[in-house]
Amino acid sequence: MQNPKLKSEEVISTIEKLLMRITERFPDSGLSKVCEDLLELSKESDRTIQWISKPNYIIRLLVALFLSILAIVLVYSVIHIDFEVGRFGLAEFVQSSEAALNEIVLIGAGVVFLVSFEARRKRKRVITATNKLRCFAHIIDSHQLTKDPDRVSKIYTVTQNSPKQSLDEYELGRYLDYCSEMLALVGKIGFLYVQDFNDPQANNAVNDLEVLTTAMARKIWQKIMILRIDKQ
After folding, report:
1. What is the mean pLDDT of residues 13-38?
2. Which of 31-45, 115-129, 195-209 bottoms out in mean pLDDT, i.e. has the lowest?
3. In angstroms, how far is CA 154 from the centroid of its own chain?
4. Whole-number pLDDT of residue 208
């Protein structure tokens, strides 16, 4: 049995359907515009995901070529070292060993830098894309901040600076539900970035995004539960 995988095209299709649902119920609303932007971002992320999943053979070839040249130079240098027993005393041995150790450390650091170059490029791309998704999550959350379930109750009193609200109880519930769905989809897009890219720092960035969207969705569902309790 193959490992199950989340498909990017399925996430895009879900966002498209959600956009149609929001537009039909709340035409020309700010929430529909946010969902439209999220759809564009999901299509952009699909291209980013393909770029992350594909190995960069040019970089790998250049790194392999450089390491091969370095290995040849090192072997050539070792072969042509002139070891004269009479001239190579303890002091010279210690001094040569210290210099060789320093060079080995520097060469090792350079090798690690070159070998990890491709992974670091992909990691930077994932973190940048995840930060963009985090911004979208805050935008979605800002659209539901003034959607107070208490405002549909009969005992609610409006003040001069109270936010305007034209939604009835059912519409308010749907609006909040759409916000929670969008937050869930933001988390799904983030997971797609690391589904085939096992990098600790990239995974941490995506996990932080998931924690953020889950916490925001939990606050929204608290409002939805208040609406349902009032309805009973």
Report:
1. 92
2. 115-129
3. 44
4. 95
What pTM does this model have?
A: 0.75
Q: What is the mean pLDDT of residues 12-27?
A: 93
CATH class in words for 8-45+123-231:
mainly alpha
Residue ranges of the domains in the chain?
8-45+123-231, 57-115
DSSP string, the chain: -PPP---HHHHHHHHHHHHHHHHHHSTT-HHHHHHHHHHHHHHHHHHHHHHHHS--HHHHHHHHHHHHHHHHHHHHHHHT----TTT--HHHHHHHHHHHHHHHHHHHHHHHHHHTHHHHHHHHHHHHHHHHHHHHHHHHHHHHTT--GGGGSTT----TTPPP----HHHHHHHHHHHHHHHHHHHHHHHHHHTT---HHHHHHHHHHHHHHHHHHHHHHHHHHHHHHHH-
